[in-house]
Amino acid sequence: MSTLGERSNKPEKTAEIGRREFCQTAALGLGGLLTGKTLADVINTKTNKGLLPPPAFLGNSIELCLNSRASEHSGLTGLATEQQQANILWAAGKAPFVGTSRTIYAATPTGTYTYDPQAHSLNYYSGSTTSNCLKITYDTESYFDAGLSYMPAFAASVDMWDGTSSQMASCPQGSAICYGIRSVQGMKSNLVAVSTDGSLPDPTVDGNNNAHDVISRLRLHDRFRIPQDLTLNQLSQLLWGAYGCTPHTINNGRQGLTVPSSWGRYPMTDSIYVVQDKVWRYCNRQGSDLTTADHRIELVYDADVRADLALALGGLPQAPCYILLCVGAAQLSDWYSLIEVGFTAGALLLQATAIDLGCAFQAPLNSSLHATIQTIANIPTTHYAHAAIAVGQLPEDVEGDGDIDLDDHAQLANCMDGPNAGTASPCLPADIDADGDVDLKDFADFQKAFRQ
Asked: Hey, which bits of 270-356 come out as E strands?
C-alpha cells in the first residue's frame, strides 16, 4: 500500500518487552470518564484485544465545537480516561475516506495500539510509548484522507469540555494528533465571522444538533436532489464550517479558523470556490490580512458551468453545488497544506451532515485536471484544485425542505403505487432510487436515512 508522501506514517513497531494487552471492559456510558479509569487499569496479559466503552458525548453542537476548537502546542501530557480515548477514537473511525484503506494507530504512555472501528476496540501493536496522553496517527494513501479523519476526532475532544481546567486539549503535530490534559479556552459561542458587504448571512455558531449524532451519520453520498440549489443560508453555514473564522487567535496574532493550520499560514485563504448557478470565491479575511475576519463571497464568473465541471471531474455525482478547495503551486508539494485540505473537507462534511446535506469527495485531483478546472470555472491560473466536493440535498428529503422527517414519510406514502407503475410529476421527488416508480425500495431507502 502506498502511504503518505511515499513513506509509511505508521509508528515503528518495537520489540515486545513484558507484552501487555487489553481485556474486555464492562465500562459503559460515562463510567470511565467519571471514575478516572485509564486504559492502563484494564490491561491484561491474557488477551491482546480491548473493547472500548460506547461513546458518551455531552451534547454540544457541531457548530459550537468548531467555533471553540483551538490548538494547544504544549502541555499535552497526563493520562486520558478510557472514556475520553473511546470518544476520540470512535469519532476518528467514523470519518469516511476516499482511498482503499486506512489504519488508525493510538499511542499512549503504556504502548501503541491499532484501533478497529468496526469492533470499537484496540489491539496491541508495540511497546512504543508517547509523552502525550494520546497520540493518533493514520496510515493512509493520501494526506487528504489523513486530514479528513482529524476533524471528527477534534470535535469529539471539544465536546467533552465541561470547563477550562484539566480538559482534553489537542494539536496536530507533524502527521499526528496529540492530546493532553491541560487548560483550554472553553466553549465559545460568540460570532466573529460577519460579512463586511452583506453577501452572506451570519452563520450559526451553536446549532440544534449534538456532535455524537452528527458524527454517527458521517458518510459520502452518490445521489443528490439536482434541481434544488443551495440557499444562501446553507452556503453561509457550509463555508463557515469548512474554513470560517472563530473567536480564538493564535500566537502570531492571526485570527483562528474552524480548522487547524500549520504555523497559521492558512494556504486556502481566498482560494475556495463555490460553483452553483455562478462561480463564487469565499473570502474569510479582509483583503489578505490574516489577522482579520470576514465572511463573504465575491463573484468570479457569471455563468452556470456545473454540467461542464461534472463532466470534467467524472468521479463525482451530478450535484446542485460544487466546492473547489484550491492551493497554490508551491503547496501542491507541501504535505502540511494538503493535510489542511483534508481538514477543510472534514469540517465541511461535519457541517453539511449537521444541516442534513450530503457530500461526495474527489481527491486528490491529478495535474491534468488543474488547467481544465481553471478554464471551466474561470479561476486564477495560480489556484490549483486539490479536492472537489459535491454538495446537495439528499434524495430522501422528499419535500426538499432541508431535513428528513415524518412529513417526507407522509408524501412518500401518498405517492407509493408499487413497482413498474410509473411516476407522475408531483411524485418525482418520492422516487428515491430513481428507477421510475415509487415502491417498497424507495420506502426502505427512506427508512434507512430516517434511522440515521
From this structure: 272-275, 279-283, 296-301, 321-327
Give CA–CA dist 177/68, Å, rounded. 17
Query: How many whole angstroms separate alpha carbon 273 and alpha carbon 284?
Result: 12
- Residue-wise pLDDT for 88-141, tens only, equals 999 999 999 999 999 999 999 999 999 999 999 999 999 999 999 999 999 999
Task: Copy the grid coordinates of residue 334.
Answer: 507541501
Which stretch of DSSP H or E encloses residue 393?
Answer: strand 384-393
Neighbours of 347 (CB within 10 A): 29
Of residues 327, 303, 322, 302, the one with CA closest to residue 311:
322
User: Which cell numbers in the block locate residue 409?
Assistant: 414519510
Residue 372 CA to residue 390 CA, distance in Å, equals: 17
- Report whether the peptide linkage leading into residue 364 is cis, meaning its omega lies within 30 degrees of zero: yes
Q: C-alpha grid cell for residue 415?
A: 405517492
Three-class secondary structure of residue 184 per DSSP: coil
What is the tens place of the pLDDT at every residue in 385-413? Answer: 999 999 999 876 555 444 455 555 665 66
**HSE-up of residue 218 (Cα within 13 Å, Cβ side):** 28
Cβ contact 398:436 at 8 Å: no
- Axis crossing angle, helix 232-243 with helix 335-354, rounded to the nearest 10: 140
**Cell output for 211:** 456532535
